[in-house]
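Q: what sequence does this backbone want?
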């Protein structure tokens, strides 16, 4: 997926670029190679985004619940408005929204977000088990972005069972 300004380092069928993340707590920050061997769904979200809180996070939780043995889910809290959120706010969100997947802060608020050519929040990147980008989509409309994402996840998981 090349955008007209060549800002995105993400291309469908190509290896996922490096992640630039910071931990919220004292957990170890993952690298892209930590996810090789199982498909990966990345969710770029923000605690200030109503679509993220109301639709995207519940959707990601559902993917973990229904397919957690077959796919990794990773949340990246990005903040292109450069607002600092204290760690207590993340802990409260984890409880309030029943977040079932690991999530980290995007370095310098939005480094990975920009490198991956995200269109806003929520933005989704689906990665094959070999580390190549399979799909990228912005949004949380259940009749558009989430429906398309569901179809692509099903396609990818079936592809993995057949190989």
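A:
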């Amino acid at each position: 997926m090349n955008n007209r300004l060549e800002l995105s380092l993400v291309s469908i069928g190509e290896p996922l670029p490096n992640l630039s993340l910071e931990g919220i707590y004292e957990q170890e920050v993952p690298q892209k190679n930590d996810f090789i061997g199982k498909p990966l769904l990345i969710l770029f979200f923000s605690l200030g985004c109503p679509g993220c809180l109301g639709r995207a996070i519940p959707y990601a939780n559902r993917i973990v619940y229904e397919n957690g043995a077959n796919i990794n889910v990773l949340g990246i809290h990005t903040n292109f408005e450069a607002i600092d959120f204290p760690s207590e706010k993340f802990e409260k969100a984890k409880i309030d929204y029943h977040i079932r997947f690991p999530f980290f802060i995007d370095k310098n608020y939005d480094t990975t977000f920009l490198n991956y050519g995200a269109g806003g929040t929520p933005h989704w990147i689906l990665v094959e088990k070999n580390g190549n980008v399979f799909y990228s989509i912005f949004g949380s409309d259940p009749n558009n972005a989430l429906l398309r994402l569901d179809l692509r996840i099903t396609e990818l998981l079936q592809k993995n069972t057949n190989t």
